[in-house]
Amino acid sequence: MGIFGFFSKEKKESLDQGLQKTSESIFSKLSKAVVGKSKVDEDVLDELEEVLISSDLGVETTVKIIQRIEERVARDKYLNASELDLILREEIALLLAENNTQDLLDFELPADKKPYVILVVGVNGVGKTTTIGKLAYLFKNAGKSVVLGAADTFRAAAVDQLILWGNRVGVPVVSHGMNTDPASVAYDAIKQGLDTKADLVIIDTAGRLHTKVNLMNELTKIKRVMQKFIPEAPHEIMLVLDGSTGQNAFMQAKEFTKATEVSSLAITKLDGTAKGGVVIGISDQFKIPVKFIGVGEKMTDLQLFNRTEFVDSLFKKN
Question: In CA terms, which of 8, 51, 114, 183 is 20 to 30 Å from 76?
Answer without folding.
Answer: 51
